[in-house]
Design brief:
With 329 residues, the chain is an all-alpha fold. It has helices at residues 2-21, 25-41, 48-73, 81-98, 103-130, 135-153, 163-169, 178-195, 198-207, 209-214, 219-245, 256-266, 278-297, 302-328; strands at residues 172-173, 176-177. It has a two-stranded antiparallel ribbon with strand order 1-2. A hairpin with a 2-residue loop joins strand 1 and strand 2. Helix 3 packs across helix 12 (256-266), helix 5 packs antiparallel against helix 6 (135-153) and helix 5 (103-130) packs antiparallel against helix 11 (219-245).
Length: 329
């Protein structure tokens, strides 16, 4: 009996160590299960072309989930992330149109789009970390402000993106889809950020802000940097939305905010801060995409699709959270 108890404890301890080292493992397991289910109900969904289409469609959500992750690391949240996506979307569309839609115009507009996202992130960081307002309330207020600004820039949706932009996004380069190069660039960017130790500092602040302050960490600047990263990746998400939809819409990011939060939680991050991984958020975003695909493939009536999608996401969230809690217990 003693040997059995020791074996169980060893197994439990090993599982805990694996989850502590790789918090995204539960999300990866759920993703594999969903891939298998999609393959059962629609074998073509596992084809190279279908998987490429899935990544292209949900690349914006992946970017936004990563954006949300950095503020959640520190125990904050950004309810304005979707509004920033909308604002950057309409800003770059209008600028591209006014500057002629050529290659130089596209690059200039994208540069201003990145700057717009950073400014939005800085505003949120100052309001939340600098002025010490509650993140959920402050960013809800700024989301209304950013949405209003987006509607002022483009009151009516539908302005088309230059053909050069959306054709490039949907094209192939050296035989590979362009979105794969975007993923490669994203991986490099995340690696560079990881080398700055900012993610570890954000996690330290989220775990215990007072203890982090007492060890000499500049808590307020670190939280502001988290919001700056959120603004940056929200702008990148807007670029993906624009490439995928080929048009401008001042409300396009509205539904994406809560999906991004769900993706972060699905990926194993704790909303209270101090625990999580960017890779998990990426997997969480793909999980949401696979759930939506599965609901369609099983032939769910249109009037029930939202209900079934929400129920499926809730079940997957519960499973992921229970596994994470067991590991951290």
């Amino acid at each position: 009996m003693a040997e059995t108890g020791t074996a169980k404890a060893s197994t439990s301890g090993g599982f805990k160590r694996w989850i502590e080292r790789y918090p995204f493992l539960p999300a990866l397991g759920i993703l594999i299960i969903l891939l298998a289910l999609n393959g059962i109900f629609s074998p073509n969904s596992l084809s190279y072309r279908s998987l490429t289409g899935l990544i292209s469609t949900y690349l914006a959500l992946i970017m936004l989930a990563i954006a949300q992750t950095y503020v959640i690391f520190a125990g904050d949240i950004d309810l304005s992330a979707g509004a920033v996506v909308s604002l950057v979307n309409v800003v770059i569309i209008v600028l591209m149109e006014k500057m002629g839609g050529g290659g130089l115009a596209v690059f200039a507009a994208l540069g201003i789009g990145v700057l717009t996202g950073l400014v939005c992130g800085l505003i949120n960081g100052i309001v939340v970390a600098g002025l010490r307002l509650q993140a959920i309330v402050a960013t809800f207020a700024t989301s209304i402000f950013f949405t209003g600004f987006a509607l002022w820039v483009m009151p009516v949706a539908g302005t088309p993106a230059p053909a050069l932009f959306w054709r490039t996004y949907g094209s192939k380069l050296l035989g590979l889809p362009f979105v794969f190069y975007v993923l490669a660039a994203l991986a490099i960017l995340l690696f560079v950020i990881s080398r700055t130790r900012l993610a570890l500092q954000l996690l330290s602040v989220g775990d215990d802000a007072q203890a982090a302050y007492q060890t000499g960490l500049p808590v307020t600047p670190i939280r502001i940097k988290g919001y700056l990263l959120c603004g940056l990746f929200s702008a990148l998400a807007a670029f993906c939305v624009t490439g995928d939809t080929a048009s401008g819409d001042p409300l396009v990011g509205g539904k994406m905010t809560l999906f991004s939060v769900a993706a972060v939680v699905l990926g194993g991050s704790a909303l209270a801060g101090g625990w999580g991984t960017v890779v998990g958020s990426l997997l969480g975003a793909l999980t949401i995409g696979l759930i939506n695909s599965l609901v369609f493939f099983i032939g769910t009536p249109s009037e029930w699709q939202n209900f079934v999608q929400g129920l499926a996401i809730l079940v997957v969230l519960m499973a992921g959270i229970l596994v994470g809690r067991r590991a951290r217990a």
